[in-house]
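The passage that follows is intended for readers who have already worked through the single-chain material. We present the inputs for a multi-component assembly, then the predicted structure in tokenized form, and finally a short commentary. You are encouraged to pause after the input and sketch how you expect the pieces to fit together before reading on.
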Amino acid sequence: MKLLVCVTQTPETTANISFNADNTEFNTTGVNFIMNPYDEWYALVRALELKETAGGSVTIINVGPTANDTVIRKGLAIGADDAVRINAEPKSSMFVAKQIAEYAKEGNFDMVILGKESIDYNGASVGAMVAEYLDMPFISFGTKMEVAGNTATINRDIEGGEEVVEVATPFVLSAAKGMAEQRIPNMRGIMMAKRKPLNVIEPVAFDDPTAVVSYTLPSAKSAVKMVDPEDMDELVRLLHEEAKII
Amino acid sequence: MVLVYAESPKGQFKKSALEAVTYGKMVADAMGTSCTALVIGNAENAGQLGKYGASKVVQANGAFENFDSQVFATVIANAAKEMGAGVVIVNHSSSGKSLLGRLAVKLDAGSVSGVNSLPTVDGGFKVKKNVFSGKAIAEFEIKTAVKVLSLMGNSFPPAESGADVAVESMDANAPAAKITVKAVQTVDGTVPLPEAELVVSAGRGMKGPENWGIIDELANVVGATTACSRPVADIGWRPHHEHVGQTGVAIRPNLYFAIGISGAIQHLAGVNSSKVIVVINKDPEAPFFKAADYGVCADLFDVVPKLTEAFKKFNAAQ
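Having made your guess, compare it with the prediction:
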């Protein structure tokens, strides 16, 4: 199995979110960046498990500047064989998808796997775009995958339940919780990662079809109103008359 | 023209489909154009979409029982091209999310997923969505001629603005599906979490799965869907599909009861867009109180049955 895992870099979950003075750019000062957890815990680890049982290779691809190399090396330390970084600032999901697809179409990959969404822009868009560029089936929100020969059986989350689908390779898969368990890189992996290939490729020309014009922070919640535990009628009254929600 | 794909799983429109048509009509009004609804496969009374603002309803007939984004996106893109749609709208649902990206590529369109406000159209097409798991809002400009949007659930309630219209048929010209659906398991009888307006959610404070009766009863009386926190799903007290939070389902109901949930940042990321949050926790330091509108600091095993009784009284008085 030849597997391509798309990873993106995101601010860590607990990062303080702020913007520059005119609210047009995310303020990265003091922000720790991590590999998008869905890409790392579920997409990458499931790809490594497949390689361990069926053989093959796992390549990581990231679209980003030099600063992303730390996160890419972590992926190599967890166990990927090699990595590719498309040397460009990722400014729209379609730009990223186009770059991934351009690389993937030459690579003869059996599967392209990525996390269900990034935790910064929460777009959940790139997987479907890559699949469309490559004219491949796309299975989203996979929580479990069994592979026999070139056929995969995948459980995927749908509203209020799940669906089990069967699909032949090649395909694109987005991975959600359940697909695999997080792996912590060990010292040997970290040492080996330094010697694994990280190829830097220049992007193909592509105009961003979208751009962020401005950011705002949600209006601050007013302080919580505490209700007497002995008076639940009062809580129901507040929900009805004040919040007007019931 | 604004084209809305109205999902009809098992031949039925859910509230989300009506929301999408309502939103499509509002976008069309802002742009000074009309809204057309596209239905793929079976749908009971597709003409009713006219009531929610579609001036035209087009139905692609064929065998579309199972969802394959390649098939559905081809049908929608063909319709969009044929009708000259300037904006294509889908739901931000499990299927809509996998259609948006394909439609963007097929139509050379810029896309914004999970929008929750009306676009502004003077001086560029701009629309907002939540980013950083609800910790900020970003306004995007779409610079292409055709735009694709997916609408976040519970952002625009279905609103009737017209009357039923006649349904036109369309040749689907769909490719064969490459994905075979082997089984579908959904919980019947309750509103799925992403669509639920009222949610009763409980966590580790429940002490064990055998204690969930009081949660089910409260949810029943309120007419709410039940949910849970991650630890509770992980240890198997509750089914996986009930897990809300960053790694589970992200929801934005009108009312969210958090019972015996401390409020870790990963949990809040999935529920902080709820319109009203009620937190019941015996720990006054529980971080969830900071994100709550109403709080009750007490033992949930005392409070929840009392709250259920209060709701019963309220329901009887209505």
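Commentary: The two ends of chain A are 54 Å apart (CA to CA). Chain A touches chain B through 81 residues (CB under 8 Å). How closely did your sketch match?
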